[in-house]
Design a protein that fits this description.
- The complex is a heterodimer of chains A (about 250) and B (about 280).
- Chain A is α+β, with helices and mostly antiparallel strands and about 250 residues long.
- Chain A has 2 domains: about 100 residues, no CATH class; about 150 residues.
- Helices cover about 50% and strands about 15% of the residues of chain A.
- In chain A, helix 3 crosses helix 5.
- By secondary structure, chain B is of the alpha/beta class.
- Chain B has a single domain, classed as Divalent-metal-dependent TIM barrel enzymes (TIM Barrel), CATH 3.20.20.150.
- In chain B, helix 2 links the parallel strand 2 and strand 3.
- Helices cover about 40% and strands about 20% of the residues of chain B.
- Chain B has an 8-stranded parallel barrel, surrounded by 5 helices.
- Classes of the chains: A alpha+beta (about 250), B alpha/beta (about 280).
- The complex binds fe (ii) ion.
């Protein structure tokens, strides 16, 4: 066997791929332990390692899964093999996997946990202050664009899982959640990560800005409000005061 | 030619100790950081590493380069790694003699190499490629292993030594890994030490392992075992004073315990050096 053949065979044995066609004794030597036992050492560590990684990044979902945790992670890594060099990225498709196999609050909670993970280590960026807006000619204001910091993510979840998050954290029983589209914003201020539920119009305005639309166009999202201008003003002010804005582009 | 740096004794920078490291600025010669934990990121971890770096030397130690894999290097890995190295200016940069990627997938493990001419040739080229990209030498570390390949034709220490000479890189000698693999595969740890060229060894690792009876497992948990201390003493006598790291990654203890283990290594080193003198 050449190097490529050895690696292809052992890789598949360690991962426990169902389609593995090579027997351990074709790749690995024996001795006091059989080739199968030796491969098993690595395969067992692979299972433990992947479970530890998911447990670390999804502590709340892991806790709620209880006994189902181990088989769920095993099925996940089989269906979604790791394609990133860092083990810390293993969970990036776990919320998606849960959504496919068990749609509901658990998948939403997983997504929120993953957003926390990504936002916690997102690349740094000095936030802009509201002074950046103060200098803008009122006529050009509507045409200005905002860039948010890398450590900010917005997602429309199918349940408002904030109560579930709090309950798991407090060790209380999981509350019954009614389905309902909820935009959750996760961001980092200093080194701490926060999440908040947004009004749908504010979420639409942020998404418009993320797409590169102007403040004027984005703030059309507030048209249904009693005082759209005031609503837009309040929202924009809070984005700056919460250190969410990276730059104002004119 | 590999130029050694004298740093003394170091410990790993682990999340559990972040606050204490910043507040107490413990007396350690240097700090090891796992490269992948700081690549392509920002936030608190990177801020802590940068602060720690202001006080003392940092070495970057990787677990995900997969130097021995036939799979091509991930360009993102190389880019982020180089960026981090530029930012931290580490005293040393290292990864393992192993592979863990195949066909764009990862098992996040340090799988052993078959010790063949083909694998040696391949690994030499890969180390050269990396060193050229980084514009600096790297260290390659021996891993603990639980299997061997019937296709191997070279001893592990010969493979590692030839790699270091041909690719012109340094060797990170993990003394615990030598002990674990020697026991698992029935070779002599002394032969291993004797087989490695003195001028290439630029760092030692010490760690705890788990003796399962029929197999030794490298756990990086608990105190360094007595036979590993004994082997370390021999290593110091052969290779001299080389920067030494205590690896304790599972059941990470209080910082004081880790520092005491590192102080013990310093003592063992002093004793070994004293025995060496006539
Ligand atoms: Fe090591």
């Amino acid at each position: 066997m050449n190097l490529a053949e050895i690696q292809a065979a052992l890789f598949s044995l360690v991962r426990g791929d169902r389609e593995t066609k090579v027997a351990p004794e074709e790749v690995v030597g024996g001795g006091s332990l059989s080739p199968a036992q030796r491969v098993h050492v690595y395969a067992g560590m692979y299972v433990a390692r992947t479970q530890d990684a998911i447990r670390e990044d999804f502590p709340k979902v892991s806790q709620l899964l209880g006994e189902a945790f181990a088989p769920t992670v095993a099925a996940y890594v089989e269906g979604y093999p790791s394609t990133h060099f860092s083990l810390s990225m293993l969970g990036r498709q776990f919320p998606q996997y849960l959504r496919e196999t068990a749609p509901g609050p658990l998948a939403d909670l997983a997504q929120l946990e993953w957003m926390h993970c990504e936002v916690f280590v997102a690349r740094d960026c000095e936030p802009a202050t509201a002074r950046a807006l103060a200098g803008i000619d009122p006529e050009r204001f509507a045409g200005a664009k905002l860039q948010f910091i890398p450590a900010l993510q917005l997602a429309w979840l199918t349940h408002d899982v904030r109560a579930l998050w709090r309950a798991v954290e407090a060790g209380e029983p999981a509350p019954e959640l009614k389905p309902g589209k909820t935009p959750l914003l996760v961001w980092r201020k200093e080194h701490e990560v926060f999440h908040v539920a947004l009004e749908p119009d504010e979420a639409l305005a942020i998404e418009a800005l993320q797409r590169g639309e102007s403040l004027g166009a984005a703030c059309e999202a507030f048209a249904e409000r009693a005082d759209p201008a005031a609503a837009a003003f309040t929202a924009i002010g809070s984005w700056f005061s919460e250190s969410m804005v990276a730059r104002v582009l004119l | 030619m590999f130029s050694r740096v004298k740093l003394g004794h170091g410990v790993g920078l682990r999340t559990k100790h972040y606050a204490q490291f910043l507040e107490e600025r413990p007396e350690v010669g240097w700090v090891e950081a796992i490269s992948e934990n700081f690549m392509g990121i920002g936030g608190r971890p990177l801020a802590v590493l940068e602060k720690v770096r202001r006080d003392r030397p940092v070495v970057l130690h990787g677990v995900g380069l997969s130097i021995g894999a036939v799979a091509p290097f991930d360009p993102t890995y190389l880019r982020d790694w180089k960026e981090l190295i530029g930012r931290i200016e580490p005293a040393m940069v290292s990864d393992h003699l192993c592979w863990g990627a195949h066909g764009g997938r990862y098992v996040h493990d340090l799988l052993p190499m078959p010790f063949t001419e083909e694998a040696l040739e391949h690994t030499v080229r890969r180390v050269e490629q990396v060193q050229e990209l980084l514009g600096r030498q790297i260290l390659i570390e021996n891993v603990s292993s639980y299997l061997t390949y019937p296709s191997s034709t070279i001893s592990e220490w010969d493979f590692l030594s030839q790699l270091a000479r041909r690719a012109d890189c340094g060797i990170l000698l993990d003394v615990n890994n030598i002990y674990v693999s020697a026991r698992n595969h029935g070779f002599s740890a002394d032969d291993y030490l004797e087989g490695v060229p003195v001028d290439r060894v630029a760092q030692y690792h010490l760690a705890g392992h788990w003796d399962r009876g029929d197999l030794l497992i490298d756990t990086h948990e608990g105190h360094v075992s007595d036979p590993v201390w004994a082997l370390y003493r021999k290593a110091v006598r052969r290779f001299g004073e080389v920067p030494t790291l205590i690896e304790w990654d599972e059941g990470v203890p209080e910082l004081e315990v880790l520092l005491a283990e590192s102080a013990k290594a310093a003592q063992v080193e002093r004793d070994a050096r004293a025995e060496q003198r006539p």
